[in-house]
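Reply to dn_fold:

You asked what the input looked like. This is it:
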Amino acid sequence: MVTVGELIAGRYRVLHPLATGGMSRLWLAHDEVEDTAVALKKCALPEGLSPDEEDVFRVWTAREARSFTLVDHPNVVRTLDVLPADDAPWIVMEFVPCRSLQQVLDESGPLPPARVAGIGLAVLEGLLAVRRAGLLHLDIKPSNVLIATDGRVMLSDFGPAVTSEGVHALAGAGIVLGSPKYLAPERLLDGVALPESDLWSLGATLYHAVEGRPPFVRASTTETLLALAEETPEPPRQAGPLTELIVALLRRNPAARPEPAMVEAALRSVTGQPAAHPDLHPEPSARRASRKGGLALAAALAVILAVAAAVVVLRPDDRSGTPAVAASPAAPARGWYWYVSGTGMRVMLPLDLKAEESGLGLAAADYPNGPRLRAEPLHPTPPNLIEALTEMERLRSMGVPGYRRIRIEQGPGAAGADWEYTAVTGPSEIHGIQRLINRGGQVYWFSWEVPANAWASELPRFTEVMDSFQAPPGG
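and this is what came back:
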C-alpha cells in the first residue's frame, strides 16, 4: 500500500494519486533531488497467475521497463528511471499536465476527422521513435494518448513487454497482456507481437476517436475474444476521409496493413498538409512475413533489414562522391552513395542529396522540399558538448521567429550530444537537429534540417547517415 507523503527510494515523495486502471496505478510525486514533479507508476501482478508465472512476470517487466529509457522524443512521455521492488518495479516518468484522449472523448464525444488525423500524426511520430529504439509499444489506446495543456500529443504507458524477447518470454508462460478492445488479432490468436500490431492498435484508436466507441466491444472471456479476433470490424460511419485508412489499418493480416509512410501520407492529406496520394493496398508478398512466421522470423528480419540498410557498393573511383547505387533492398527507390570530403571524412548519403565540399566538410541539400545536411570538424575542439550546443543555440536562435527548443541533451552514445528544435524560416516551419560527436578527441558537427511536416519520414534517413559516418584516418 502506497501512502501520501511516503518517500520512494529515498528520493521521490508521493503527493497524491493521479490515475488507476488496468494493471497499474499512477501517483504524482516530488523528486527531492532534482526539485521537480514526476509521475510514479506501479504495475500490479495480473490475477490468476501461478507462482512460476508470477516470477516470469516480475523478472521480465523489470527488464523491459529499463528499455523504455531508450526512447526520447517529444511525442513520447519520457521514462526517467526504473526502481526495483519486491513485487513489481516502480517506473519514474516525466510529469506532463494533460488529459488523455479517452477523457476528451468521454467529455466531448467523437471528434472531427481532421482533428483525429492530427492526433494520429503525433502518435505515429511517437510510434516511429519507439521503433527506432528497437521496441514495440503494444498498448496503444485512447487512455494512453495524452493531450498536454500546451497542445502537444504524447504516447504514454508502454505495455509490460516491449521487445520481441520479452513478448516471447511472457507468451511462453501463457501471459498475453494488453487491452482487448485495441489488441491486434495476431496477438489474441497466436500471442505474436509485430510492429504491425501497433499499427492495428493505432487504427482501433482512430476508430474510437471518430466513432465514440472502439471497433469491437470485446468481452473478457477467452472464447469471445478468440471469436471476435476472427471477425472484421464494420467500417466507421463518421470517419469521412479517414475511413479508407482506418479500414486498412484494421486488416486481419499484418502483412496487408499499410506501411508507416503510407499512414503518414494519408493522415497528412486529411489535415490539409501536402502529401502524395497514399497507396493503402500494399502487395503482401513484398512486405514483412505474416503473423504465422512468429516472433523469431520478425526478429530475424529486423536484424537483416538493419544490416542491409547500411550496405552500399563503393567502387574504386568513388573518391569524389560519384554515386554508387545501393545494393541493399532496404532503399530500392533511391539508392545511396559514399561521399568522401577532402579531409577524408566519409559518409553515406541518399542519391537525392547532392553533396559538395564546404570548408573542411560537406553541404548537401534537397531544398526546399527535403533535408539540408552540413557536416564538418570543429576547431578548436569544445571541452563540453552540452555547453557548446547551448552557446550555439544562444547565438543562432536570437531573433528567429517561432523558435522552440525541444531538447539539448546527451545524444546517442557517451561521446555525443544533440540540440533539437523547430523554427520558422521564410514561409514554412523547419524541424532540425544539431549533433556533436567525439571521435578520438576530435568533435564533428552535423546539422540536419527539414520541413517540419517531413520530420517523421526523414529522420530515419538521418539516422542511417549518422550510422555510416567514418572519421578521417587518424582523426
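The domain at 313-468 is CATH 3.40.1000.10 (Protein Transport Mog1p; Chain A).
Hope that clears it up.
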